[in-house]
């Protein structure tokens, strides 16, 4: 089955710093890849996605590119804000089941 | 509200008690999922419903776990004779899209945190 490994946290950054969270996957076939985010006191929500190799997902200034050759889907943002403080989950799926990484807690200081 | 609603938000049970966790999905959403999230881990798939039909229950950890969605809307996850290892956050998610085509557009509730003493 599918599995996802993501960078351990916690990660603490200053505002306007560059953020990257590494994610690699193992899967049969060609899974769809996702980043979900959980803000304090809220449910998980989809941040961005990519459904095939070389696709780039982007949203709210975050980007991730589906790299088949390295089986990776690293999340990046060039200039973080305090409001980006959250837990980020990398995820993959071949069908309707999502496989999640353990999550990375990101705290952005003003 | 318009989102996925779960209740109770917090539940403390003594070992051996039965618990029931409720999920109200977004109105009209066909697909409903339950996930289990242990402390410090990502969510793990438990079961999937398409309308009232439970199409996949392969993730349920034991026969003490039972889920239903009798009218294709509200769902209940029941855990019988709870054990300490059942302590986790139970997440419900719904989607307008049918299974087999995962766009990742799942809408998650805030979860029910179960603590078994």
In short:
The complex is a heterodimer of chains A (110) and B (117). Chain A is an all-beta fold and 110 residues long.
Molecular structure report:
The complex is a heterodimer of chains A (110) and B (117). Chain A is mostly beta strands and 110 residues long. Chain A is 0% helix and 50% strand. In chain A, strands 2, 5, 6, 10, 11 and 12 form a six-stranded mixed β-sheet that branches. Chain A has a four-stranded antiparallel β-sheet with strand order 3-9-8-7, with no helix packed on it. Chain A is globular. The N and C termini of chain A lie far apart (41 Å). Chain B has strands spanning 5-7, 10-13, 19-24, 31-37, 44-50, 53-56, 65-68, 75-79, 88-95, 107-108, 112-116. With 117 residues, chain B is mainly β. Chains A and B meet through β5, β6, β10 and β11 of A and β4, β5 and β10 of B.
Structure characteristics:
heterodimer; A: 110 residues; mainly beta; 4-stranded antiparallel sheet; 12 strands; 0% helix; B: 117 residues; 7-stranded mixed sheet
Q: What is the straight-line distance between the termini of chain B?
A: 32 Å
Q: State the end-to-end CA separation of chain A.
A: 41 Å
Total number of β-strand segments of chain A?
A: 12
Write the element-wise H/E pattern of chain A from the N-terminal end onward.
EEEEEEEEEEEE
The quaternary state of the protein chains shown equals heterodimer
The residue ranges of chain B in which pLDDT falls below 50 over 5 or more consecutive positions are none
What's the overall geometry of chain A?
globular
Write the layout of secondary structure elements.
The complex is a heterodimer of chains A (110) and B (117).
Chain A: E1 3-6, E2 11-14, E3 19-21, E4 23-26, E5 32-38, E6 45-50, E7 56-59, E8 62-65, E9 75-77, E10 86-93, E11 99-100, E12 104-109
Chain B: E1 5-7, E2 10-13, E3 19-24, E4 31-37, E5 44-50, E6 53-56, E7 65-68, E8 75-79, E9 88-95, E10 107-108, E11 112-116
Parallel strand pairs in B: 2-11
Antiparallel strand pairs in B: 1-3, 3-8, 4-5, 4-9, 5-6, 7-8, 9-10, 9-11
């Amino acid at each position: 089955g599918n599995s996802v490994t993501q960078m351990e946290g916690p990660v603490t950054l200053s505002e306007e710093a560059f953020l990257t969270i590494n994610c690699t996957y193992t899967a049969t076939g060609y899974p769809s890849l996702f980043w979900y985010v959980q803000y304090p006191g809220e449910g998980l929500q989809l941040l961005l996605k990519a459904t095939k190799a070389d696709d780039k997902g982007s949203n709210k200034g975050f980007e991730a590119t589906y790299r088949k050759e390295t089986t990776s889907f690293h999340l990046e943002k060039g200039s973080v804000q305090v409001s980006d403080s959250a837990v980020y989950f990398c995820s993959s799926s071949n069908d309707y089941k999502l496989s999640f990484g353990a999550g990375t807690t990101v705290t952005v200081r003003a | 509200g318009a989102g996925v609603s779960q209740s109770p938000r917090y539940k403390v049970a003594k070992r051996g008690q039965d618990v029931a966790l409720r999920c109200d999905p977004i109105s009209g959403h066909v697909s409903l999922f339950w996930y289990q999230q242990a402390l410090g881990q990502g969510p793990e798939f438990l079961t999937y419903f398409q309308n009232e039909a439970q199409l996949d229950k392969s993730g349920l950890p034991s026969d003490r776990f039972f889920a239903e969605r009798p009218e294709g809307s509200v769902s209940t996850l029941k855990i019988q004779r709870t054990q300490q290892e059942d302590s986790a956050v139970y997440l419900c998610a719904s989607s307008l899209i049918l299974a087999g085509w995962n766009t990742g557009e799942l809408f998650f509730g805030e979860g029910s945190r179960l603590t078994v003493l």
